[in-house]
Design a protein that fits this description.
Elements: H1 2-28, H2 36-57, H3 65-88
Length: 94
Amino acid sequence: MFYFYAGYLLCMNLLALVFMYADKRLAIKKKWRIPEKTLFLVAGLGGSLGGLLGMYLFHHKTRHWYFVVGFWLLFLAHTALTVFLFYMGALQLP
């Protein structure tokens, strides 16, 4: 279960990071953008850390308070969930 959970979070965070990078590049080129709903969906499904890293590495969406606050809240929720799963024994280190 641990490997599945870790792999899932890794994939979602990488996807969020790539989406933030791609959206920043599209914004610079003034082209069609990735919808904000999609960015939040990926962050909400486990990619909050990747989204936060993307925001600050690429200086993207950092002026939008709802992204900054929302992604931090999602990150805290994912961290709390992970700690809870470890505490309850659902996740165990191999």
